[in-house]
Amino acid sequence: MEPVLNHARCWGAPAAAVLFFVLWCVAEAGRMGPFAGVIIMQWPGTVPLLLMTAAIAVAARWPMLSLALTGLLLLGQLTRMVAPMYSNNWAIYLGSFIALGFIAWTGTARMRIIAAAANTVFAAVMAVMMLSWRYSAGLGWFPKLYSGDWYTFRTYGPQLFALLLMIGAGIFLVGLLLSLYQERGSLFHARELAQNTLKDTEIDLIVEQERTRISRDLHDVLAHSLAVIAAQADGARYLVKDQPQPVLKALETIAGSARSALVDAQRVIEGVSEDGMTAPQPQMKDITDMVDGMRSNLAIRDSTSGQPVELSSGQQLAVFRIVQECLTNALKHGGRGAEVRLHFDWSGPGLTLHAASALAQEPATAEEPGRPGRGLAGMRERAHLAGGWLTAGPDGEHFRVTVFIPYGHPGDRDRDGAGAGDRAGAGERAGIEQPERDREHRQPALTGPAPAGTAPGTTGEETENA
């Protein structure tokens, strides 16, 4: 119903004007005489019909022009420049009331009042000219009385005027009801939109409260614990300098990892602070430093092919975290010295990252619980939010992770946060669930190999479920 009314609101007036004109031409074809391409001007109703047709056609778009055309017709008849109405064509006057109906439907409240007042005056002038012996001298149900205009007006005037007002009021009421119906639909739509907006606002408020809670917990628990770990590791390293070099190296790694995790935790806390400021996030240029920092524990071979392309900030964050997850899990499950190969391929329509590491040779222990891990699911989610995809699984003696991140449009890369990949950093900045996902690679194991079948991008639990 609504689409039909919307189309009728725009095109109803021109369509009604065409229909009005065609019906009059069909009804008066015999009196109009032969056609010569146009209506012959000898028919007395030609000018009134054309003016009323034009008044209907422009009623919705230019209501003042429509009223002016009706007034022009009546003025022309009063000054005898236009032929008066007769018994067979006086109903052309009803075109003024049809135009009034469209004005009531599409016009403003002020315009409705103006149109109603103008048509009241028009109805009075029409009644006068239809009854006066100087013009139409009575027609239809109101024949001549041969007693002068005053007596004719007293006898027929109120009846004819009331008839014209009833016709005009009825059409005006139809247009007003259509307008009210559409306004009610618009109000329902606005109310529904307001309810949805309120619901979204409530959800945002809940999320913001959760972010604040997580920020407080990170500050009170995680950040403090990481600071204690870093301080204890540094203290132990300085107190036991006569210990073997591997032990000192392990303490140094523990302290460095704790400080790095503390910095990341501080970024998350700042990202969910009340002022809404987002802390700087790791980018592609930080991958080199991260890989160099892991070389003391892993045998990493990295390579690059193609010309690097600037990715959006969210995509860069996703690539950084995926590489970090792969290296951390290789160390966690493969132990120190595990071989890892990284290859960045920039030659395609997007960045393709290949990561592979040898599978652990020791069998899985029965003590490990068979619950699903979060690392692989977290990497897949990051790749998906960056606009790409990720596959991971055993391949012979290696476990391979393949990631594809599309370059996207140049305009998207130039706008920070405009591309689909920028959504990948939303969860990181929001602080929701990210601390749990990143917890796996914040505390790398430095001794002992992991259960068989584990590699970058998976936890021991994920391999067991596979």
UniProtKB/TrEMBL annotation:
Entry's EC annotation: 2.7.13.3
Membrane-spanning intervals of the chain: 12-29, 49-78, 90-107, 114-136, 156-181
Residue intervals of the Signal transduction histidine kinase subgroup 3 dimerisation and phosphoacceptor domain: 210-272
SUPFAM superfamilies for this protein: ATPase domain of HSP90 chaperone/DNA topoisomerase II/histidine kinase (SSF55874)
UniProt catalytic activity: ATP + protein L-histidine = ADP + protein N-phospho-L-histidine
Pfam families reported in the protein's UniProt record: HisKA_3 (PF07730)
Low complexity: bias regions: 444-460
Region (Disordered): 358-377, 410-466
CDD domains linked to this entry: HATPase_UhpB-NarQ-NarX-like (cd16917)
Stored InterPro entries: HATPase_C_sf, Sensor_HK_TwoCompSys, Sig_transdc_His_kin_sub3_dim/P
Gene Ontology MF: a single term: kinase activity
UniProt keyword annotations, A-Z: ATP-binding, Kinase, Membrane, Nucleotide-binding, Phosphoprotein, Transferase, Transmembrane, Transmembrane helix, Two-component regulatory system
Compositional bias per record (Basic and acidic residues), positions renumbered to this chain: 430-443
UniProt-recorded name of the protein: histidine kinase
Organism in which the protein naturally occurs: Arthrobacter pullicola
